[in-house]
Design brief:
single chain, about 350 residues, Rossmann fold, 2 domains, four-stranded mixed beta sheet, 11 strands
């Protein structure tokens, strides 16, 4: 098992939980990167003593450099610094958790090292899936997904990878977000504050809004296409509000295999770090007698059209997927700042993909 680690995006939700898991497992943290949250990054430096850190914001990098002069940590800056951290740390596992399309270049740089990539950001595969997977193949990099759904699929397929011809379809589960069951009319006046209240998961703002619109599941289906080499019509999305079954695979003999655990991102993070080994984790064990009921329903793509639009983009190809992702990032930012409505998000995305 590889016991050295670098974390790209260490101050985000996944990055913070990765460091918690790293401490639990006894991994040595060699490098970290962040956008501009240098207060938290400084705390991480003093706690984990990485050799390198990178800060995207050059002014924040300069301030951090001054703050940690008493340590042995070398502070890099800008996109070049993110790429250097990805390539020069020498870590056995590189966790790529930089949010949004900004994570593409560092992810590709990490892949070029030929090491294990614990992939936690969707956008590189959504915007450039073929490039990412071809680069991994060229450099012999091992990509292990961190998203709970893709980790579940990976685990369900782990013992059957040589027999992929028997795979019929992938079933992605979705919590349904905070507005499950609401009609399109009821969604007209949704506020950012309401959309940020996810019923099951604690995540960053952007991904939480994506969950509320079901765009998160749309991005995941595009990601799954590339990770598992399947077509869009081989991926089914099912609403599962309990978030206990994280995804399933169905085989051509009628068998369906599922991965179950409590909703806790530390479990798939740890699996990506230790695969194929399993070790005791920080996740609370599942007690089915306490859960008693697991429910499923079809997604409402009239009230939540983002999921339908993701299927359209997936069928169209790479340019449409990139347009979908970029339009969504912009629209989510505008919604969070109060400049557009909740229903304007899918409207702007549809306009973008119709031009590709």
């Amino acid at each position: 098992m590889k016991k050295t680690l670098s974390v790209l995006g260490s101050t985000g939700s996944i990055g913070r939980q990765t460091l918690e898991v790293a401490r639990h497992l006894g991994f040595k943290v060699l490098a970290l990167s962040a956008d501009k949250n240098i207060d938290l990054l400084e705390n991480q430096i003093r706690r984990f003593s990485p050799e390198f850190v990178a800060v995207y914001d050059i002014y924040a990098a300069a301030e951090l450099r001054n703050r940690v002069r008493d340590t042995k940590t070398y502070v890099l800056e800008a996109m070049e610094g993110q790429i250097d951290v990805a390539q020069k740390s020498g870590a056995g596992v590189i966790v790529t958790a930089i949010a949004g399309q900004a994570g593409l270049e560092p992810t590709l740089a990490a892949i070029e090292t030929g090491k294990r990539i614990a992939l936690a950001n969707k956008e590189p595969l959504v915007c450039a899936g073929h490039l990412v997977m071809e680069t991994a193949k060229k450099h012999g990099a091992e990509i292990i997904p961190v998203d709970s759904e893709h980790s579940a699929i990976f685990q369900c397929l782990a013992n059957d990878l040589p027999h992929r011809s028997s795979l019929k379809k992938i079933i992605l589960t979705a919590s349904g977000g905070p507005f499950r069951g609401m009609t399109r009319d009821e969604l007209k006046n949704i506020t950012p504050e309401q959309a940020l209240e996810h019923p099951n998961w604690s995540m960053g703002k952007k991904i939480t809004i994506d969950s509320a619109t079901l765009m998160n599941k749309g991005l995941e289906l595009i990601e799954a296409m590339h990770l598992f080499d399947v077509k869009p019509d081989q991926i089914e999305v099912v609403i599962h509000p309990e978030s206990i079954i994280h995804s399933m695979v169905e085989y051509n003999d009628g068998s369906t295999i599922a991965q179950l655990s409590n909703p806790d991102m530390r479990q798939p993070i740890q699996y990506a770090l230790t695969y194929p080994e399993r070790r005791p984790s920080l996740t609370k064990p599942l007690d089915l007698t306490q859960i008693q009921t697991l429910t499923f329903e079809k997604p409402d793509t009239d009230a939540f059209p983002c999921l339908r639009l993701a299927y359209v983009a997936a069928e169209k190809g790479t340019a449409a997927c990139a347009a979908l992702n970029n339009a969504n990032e912009e629209a989510v930012g505008l919604f969070l700042s109060g400049e557009i409505s909740f229903l304007d998000i899918p409207a702007r995305i549809e306009e973008a993909i119709n031009t590709n």
